[in-house]
């Protein structure tokens, strides 16, 4: 995920340091280790100044430093990936492709058409020079981070990928840009205030009372944290983006006929094909779902620069090939499905990293195991070095014997049985309570901010430690330190 940042100010100050603390700046730089630069634009005729900063994590095509600018003065910041909707060649960079489409857009409708077409996660900032407009927003599902902050004292507007947590401050906190459409800031009208136009996501089949109710709820969500000097209005022409999904069903289908035999034991032993709800139609739907999921995974695992052709040829031994794809692997049905589908598309001699995160159990949960272990050896005065090592390994294993570790190992056995020719790198990522507390405070809390629920924290911690890719590679009874080389991780 790249780090992007844009500052609009009406007060003359144009340094990020005047508006961002050092922690946030450091967090931005960590988002993009491959390239970084800034671009400044001052427009005295309309009394505004802009500062654009980009920190690039290179994934595809030629390395493209951000922000990018064309001959017309348009400026673009992009944090996303294009998997469909707009053609991106194998050697092309999606930042350049999307910028080219936006720069050639002569009307608002064209801009909306481009952003509606993109299949994949994205957040963007686009300065349209001819109209003195700043476009920004996130994809329909909000899969890329983008935060905003309006500062009345400094007469500024800030967009940033990440923020920082200041426990002693309740003001000036960045909030998530609502993923309810895209927005256009009219900089010509921003003399003493900021005027935003909203272009919502909309499905043409969704109309009437339900649509009006949803519009009202979305409107409240957008405006509830905005200060008085910021005004938001639905765009004058009531234009919208085409939603990528249709509204979900809200009606419960008719109940399926109950099986004639209500014996649970009997029913549980029936094959899938013999279940009363399983017929040719449902079978077709199941296979369609699997095909859609498979295509989604295919685009994800193949849409990156791999090693040169000779390096991935069959003449090279599997042990010399490094993993390009890692999966946050718990052994549950979701991660098992992703692993199986990834196995379909990743070159057969390329390993797949299975990153299994376990947080150390509390001492009271380990007490029973430790007590049993002591009883087994209390009559032995001396233990060999080998036995002592085994005891230590057993103690460590018990400390991290959480449900996901148990199901993860069971899932590994299934994957090895399904495709024994694939190298499945099962990586145990063990996190002590001390490390969890430290990293949560120093890194993770800033990255998930402003989200602060228990679920945000638990998922954020698991994803962060898995994405770091540092753990222990388990192969049979052997274990060795391991750092994942994967360019992408899927969770």
Describe the structure.
The protein is of the alpha+beta class. Helix content is 33%, strand content 23%. It has twelve helices and 20 strands. The chain has helices spanning 22-31, 94-103, 108-117, 209-223, 264-268, 280-302, 333-345, 363-377, 385-399, 403-418, 433-448, 454-468; strands at 3-9, 35-43, 48-56, 68-69, 75-80, 122-128, 133-138, 147-151, 156-160, 175-176, 181-186, 194-202, 230-234, 241-242, 325-328, 352-359, 424-431, 470-475, 478-483, 488-490. The strands form three sheets. Strands 4, 5, 6, 7, 11, 12, 13 and 14 form an eight-stranded mixed beta sheet that branches. A hairpin with a 4-residue loop joins strand 8 (147-151) and strand 9. Helix 6 (280-302) crosses helix 7 (333-345) and helix 11 (433-448) crosses helix 12 (454-468).
Radius of gyration (CA) equals 26 Å
Overall average pLDDT: 83
The helix fraction, in percent, is 25-40%
Oligomeric state of the chains in view: single chain
Distance between the termini: 14 Å
Shape: globular
Number of strands: 20
Biggest pleated sheet: 8 strands, mixed
Beta-strand proportion: 15-25%
How many helices? The count is: 12
Class computed from helices, strands and strand pairing: alpha+beta
Unreliable residue runs: 308-317, 370-375, 377-383
What is the compact description of this entry?
Helix content is 33%, strand content 23%. The protein has 491 residues and is α+β, with helices and mostly antiparallel strands. Helix 7 (333-345) links the parallel strand 15 (325-328) and strand 16.
């Amino acid at each position: 995920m790249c780090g992007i940042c844009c500052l609009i100010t009406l007060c003359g100050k144009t340094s990020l340091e005047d508006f961002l603390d050092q922690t946030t700046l450091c967090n931005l730089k960590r988002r993009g280790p491959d390239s970084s630069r800034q671009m400044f634009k001052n427009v005295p005729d309309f009394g505004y100044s802009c500062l654009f900063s980009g920190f690039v994590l290179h994934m595809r095509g030629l390395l493209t430093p951000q922000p990018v600018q064309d001959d017309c003065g348009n400026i673009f910041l992009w944090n996303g990936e294009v998997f469909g909707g707009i053609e991106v060649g194998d050697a092309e960079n999606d930042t350049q492709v999307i910028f080219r489409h936006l720069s050639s857009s002569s009307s608002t409708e064209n801009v909306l058409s481009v952003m509606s077409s993109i299949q994949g996660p994205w957040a963007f900032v686009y300065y349209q020079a001819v109209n003195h407009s700043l476009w920004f927003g996130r994809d329909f599902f909000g899969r890329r981070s983008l935060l905003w902050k309006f500062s009345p004292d400094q007469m500024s507007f800030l967009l940033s990928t990440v923020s920082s947590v200041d426990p002693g401050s309740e003001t000036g906190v960045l909030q998530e840009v609502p993923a309810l459409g895209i927005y256009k800031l009219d900089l010509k009208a921003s003399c003493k205030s900021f005027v935003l136009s909203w272009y919502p996501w909309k499905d043409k089949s969704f109309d009437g009372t339900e649509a009006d109710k949803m519009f009202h709820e979305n409107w409240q969500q957008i405006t509830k944290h905005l200060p008085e000097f910021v005004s938001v209005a639905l765009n004058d022409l009531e234009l919208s983006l085409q939603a990528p999904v249709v509204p979900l069903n809200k009606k419960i289908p008719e109940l399926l006929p109950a099986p004639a035999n209500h014996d649970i034991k009997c029913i549980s032993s029936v094959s899938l094909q013999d279940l009363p709800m399983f017929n040719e139609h449902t079978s077709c739907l199941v296979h369609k779902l699997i095909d859609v999921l498979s295509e989604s995974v295919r685009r994800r695992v193949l849409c990156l620069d791999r090693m040169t052709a000779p390096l991935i040829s069959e003449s090279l031994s599997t042990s010399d090939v490094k993993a390009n794809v890692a999966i946050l692997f718990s052994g549950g049905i979701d991660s098992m499905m992703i692993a199986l589908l990834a196995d379909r598309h990743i070159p057969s001699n390329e390993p797949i990293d299975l990153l299994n995160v376990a947080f150390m159990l509390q001492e009271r949960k380990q007490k029973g195991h430790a007590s049993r272990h002591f009883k087994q050896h209390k009559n032995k005065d001396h233990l060999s070095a080998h036995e002592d090592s085994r005891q230590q390994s057993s103690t460590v294993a018990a400390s991290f014997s959480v449900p996901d570790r148990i199901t993860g190992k069971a899932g590994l056995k299934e994957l090895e049985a399904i495709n024994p020719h694939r190298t499945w790198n099962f990586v145990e990522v063990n996190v002590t309570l001390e490390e969890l507390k430290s990293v949560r405070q120093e890194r993770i809390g800033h990255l998930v901010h402003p989200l602060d629920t228990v679920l945000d924290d638990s998922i954020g911690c698991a994803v962060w430690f898995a994405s770091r890719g540092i753990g222990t590679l388990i192969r049979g009874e052997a274990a060795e330190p391991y750092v994942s080389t994967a360019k992408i991780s899927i969770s």
